[in-house]
Amino acid sequence: MLIKAPDRVAKVAADIADHFQAYVARQGFKAQVVVYDKEMCVAYKHELDKYLPAEASTVVMSAAQTDPPEWRQWTPDRSQMDRLLERFNNPHDPLKIVIVTAKLLTGFDAPILQAQYLDKPLHDHTLLQAITRTNRVYPPNKAYGLVVDYLGVFDDLANALAFDDQSVRDVIKNLDDLVDQFPPAMQAALSHSSLAWTARKTDGKHFKPRSNPSAKTAEMPLRRHTRWCISSGKHSVRRHSSRTIKRITPG
Q1: How far is it, in rounded angstroms, from Cα 161 to Cα 134?
Q2: What is the pLDDT of residue 220?
Q3: Using an 8 Å Cβ cutoff, are 133 and 50 in contact?
Q4: What's the whole-number mean pLDDT along residues 76-90?
Q5: Is the peptide bond before 140 cis (omega within 30 degrees of 0)?
Q6: pLDDT of residue 239
Q7: Ranges 103-107, 148-152, 198-202, most confident
């Protein structure tokens, strides 16, 4: 399989190390490398160790009975995983990069994660959930996240994110419309909230804060706009040699 060719893995790993040190590490951020399978996780670990200290990266993957014994060090149990995530989120810990193929692609909340190096074909919800790992605010310097695409996953966005829900596809195509709709929607929500509060105060009843349906509705376009900007990279894509770099605005 071409994607697993040792020469290719070596070149991509060298590029990852070079980019990480030049643009990510110097800002105090960390990274995730997403690869094709567990065998490639190990291969990337060995290659990255040629350019970075061994403690700077680790592999995180699930265990299987057919795994070689030496892979057990990278199949953490629950307590070990919790400790690993604590280390990764600690800006002072030497652990800077996690290499994965399936684990930590969803539900992985690490605001310090800025760059994701993508070397695995992903589609639909899996792709969207994976790339939004970088979409966490990390003040004061994290203005965006990066997805570095080594396979051309984003070359055909319509196919990569081919959701069945037509309304979701419409969001991708109509980002500018959502931007225009948000200010009046937010103003209407704020006005409604103000009137509701005034009415309660006038009635002399005890005011109990509660969720406002209008405010919730107004919030959705912003969230959806931010997330879909992430996946489309429409307004902030730059190419460098064999990789495509997506800038992602934290949501």
Answers
A1: 18
A2: 31
A3: no
A4: 92
A5: yes
A6: 44
A7: 148-152
Of the listed ranges 25-29, 63-67, 93-97, the least confidently predicted one is 63-67
151-166 average pLDDT score: 67
Residues with Cβ < 8 Å from 188, sequence gap 6 or more?
A: 214, 218
Closest CA to 30 of 131, 103, 114: 114
In this prediction, residue 127 carries a pLDDT of 82
Q: What is the helix (H) or strand (E) element at residue 47, kind and residue range?
A: helix 38-48
Share of the chain above pLDDT 90, in %: 37
The three-state secondary structure class of 62 is coil
Give ∠ CA 101-107-109 in degrees, rounded to 5.
105
Q: Whole-prediction pTM value?
A: 0.66
Q: What is the pLDDT of residue 128?
A: 80
Runs of H (alpha helix) within 53-100? 78-89
Closest CA to 172 of 162, 180, 184: 162
Nearest CA among 1, 43, 50 for reference residue 21 = 50
Whether the CB-CB separation of 151 and 68 falls below 8 Å is answered with no
35: left (phi over 0), alpha (psi -120 to 50) or beta: beta
Phi, psi of 237 (to 5 degrees): -120, 135
CA–CA distance, 49 with 16 (Å, rounded to integer): 12
C-alpha span between 193 and 196 (Å, rounded): 5
Structure tokens at 72: 């057990």
